[in-house]
């Protein structure tokens, strides 16, 4: 009898990952998304059941669906569905992460406080609500600083680098307008260096570094990456620090037998600073096909093993494949006519 797994989130960028999930003959995939077009696309093009529910707000309806389908696991592609996935996995005694771990992973303020108590190296930071608190923090650490929402739903929304006092108001309002889940912001000391995002799984106390990148960022306040290269060009010392810190991060947040998408900055002294974590895989094509190509095996297939508590024969990532994930960024406004 086939296992049944619910996947939360069916955006266009997740389509290839869902397709890869659906190729596993031992599992029936059930997709849930709050966009009718996405649901229709999945039904039309893949051998999956798909249902229209808001993955953030319709958790009771999704819970009833999970009961009806007698699922063996549930997984969210993004931050918006993490609370729903945690709620349902706990109610049905499925493998997942606790609500406490979920909330700490979603709120950068809580996350960074946990890290501070665990002595994890990170930029100096403060949690604020009011604009005048930004200047108070600058008076402690100096410019530049970074301001961002503590919980914005993922995707780097609302991140702004403030380089002078005249930019404080602009940066504060930029971060504040996308802070949809609470009214708290985080300000942190800007660390000069190379940013990397890493995909990890933490199984039975062992850290498996699935993929690690090196980001190319333009010199603008919003600091959105234009290119993400895999694998990053780091020496063994840095990679060892990334692995050790990733393990400490997963331990500190209670993410046992789970996956993480972690952001680091490596400065010129080769110190590794933890920035944030998503208690999930990387967004969009990072999960698949990129991480799969770099690691040398199907990352979605590994995730299916994890959520079904199959921890034996976990493949070790090779990080031998190379890839580049590029994004169109511009300060101009208008409509694309041709690409």
The percentage of residues in β strands lies in: 15-25%
What string, H for helix and E for strand, traces the elements in order? EHEHEHEHHHEHEEHEEEEEHEEHHE
Strand order of the largest sheet: 3-2-1-4
What helical percentage do the residues reach? 25-40%
Overall geometry: globular
Structural class: alpha+beta
Q: Largest sheet, if any? A: 4 strands, parallel
Mean pLDDT across residues: 93
Low-confidence stretches: none
In whole angstroms, the N-to-C terminal distance is: 47 Å
- The strand count comes to 15
Which radius of gyration do the C-alpha atoms yield? 20 Å
Helix count from the secondary structure assignment: 11
List the helices and strands and how they pair.
Elements lengths: L2 E6 L6 H8 L4 E7 L2 H10 L3 E4 L6 H11 L3 E4 L5 H10 L7 H8 L1 H10 L7 E4 L3 H10 L3 E5 L10 E3 L5 H9 L8 E5 L4 E10 L2 E7 L1 E3 L10 E4 L5 H17 L5 E9 L5 E7 L8 H9 L3 H9 L15 E4 L13
Structure characterization notes:
- The protein has 339 residues and is α+β, with helices and mostly antiparallel strands.
- 33% of the residues lie in helices and 24% in strands.
- The chain is built from 11 helices and 15 strands.
- It has a 4-stranded parallel beta sheet with strand order 3-2-1-4, sandwiched between helices. The protein has a 4-stranded antiparallel beta sheet with strand order 5-8-6-7, sandwiched between helices.
- Helix 2 (36-45) links the parallel strand 2 and strand 3 (49-52).
- Helix 3 (59-69) packs across helix 4 (82-91) and helix 5 (99-106) crosses helix 6 (108-117).
- The model has no long low-confidence stretch (mean pLDDT 93).
């Amino acid at each position: 009898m086939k296992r049944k797994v619910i996947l939360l989130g069916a955006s266009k960028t997740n389509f290839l990952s869902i397709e890869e999930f659906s190729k596993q003959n031992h599992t029936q995939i059930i997709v849930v998304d709050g966009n009718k077009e996405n649901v229709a696309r999945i039904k039309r093009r893949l051998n999956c059941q798909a249902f229209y529910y808001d993955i953030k707000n319709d958790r009771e309806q999704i819970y009833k669906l999970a009961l009806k389908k007698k699922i063996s696991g549930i997984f969210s592609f993004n931050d918006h569905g993490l609370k729903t996935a945690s709620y349902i996995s706990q109610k049905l005694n499925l493998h997942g992460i606790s609500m406490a771990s979920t909330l700490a992973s979603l709120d950068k303020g809580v996350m960074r406080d946990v890290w501070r108590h665990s002595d994890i190296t990170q930029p100096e930071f403060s949690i604020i609500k009011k604009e005048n608190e930004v200047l108070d923090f600058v008076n402690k650490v100096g410019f530049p600083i970074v301001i961002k929402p503590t919980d914005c739903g993922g995707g780097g929304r609302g991140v702004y680098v403030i380089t002078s006092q005249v930019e404080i108001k602009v940066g504060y309002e930029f971060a504040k307008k996308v802070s949809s889940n609470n009214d708290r912001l985080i300000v942190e000391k800007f660390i000069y260096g190379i940013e990397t995002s890493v995909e990890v799984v933490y199984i039975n106390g062992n850290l498996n570094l699935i993929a690690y990148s090196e980001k190319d960022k333009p010199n603008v306040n919003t600091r959105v990456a234009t290119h993400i290269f895999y694998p990053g060009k780091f020496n063994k010392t840095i990679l060892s620090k990334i692995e050790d810190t990733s393990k400490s991060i997963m331990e500190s947040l209670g993410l046992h037998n789970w996956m993480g998408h972690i952001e680091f900055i490596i400065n010129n002294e080769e110190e590794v600073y933890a920035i944030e974590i998503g208690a999930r895989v990387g967004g969009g094509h990072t999960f698949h096909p990129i991480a799969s190509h770099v690691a040398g095996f199907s990352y979605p297939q590994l995730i299916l093993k994890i959520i079904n508590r199959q921890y034996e024969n976990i493949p070790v990532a090779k990080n031998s494949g190379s890839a580049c994930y590029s994004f169109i960024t511009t300060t101009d406004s208008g409509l694309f006519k041709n690409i």
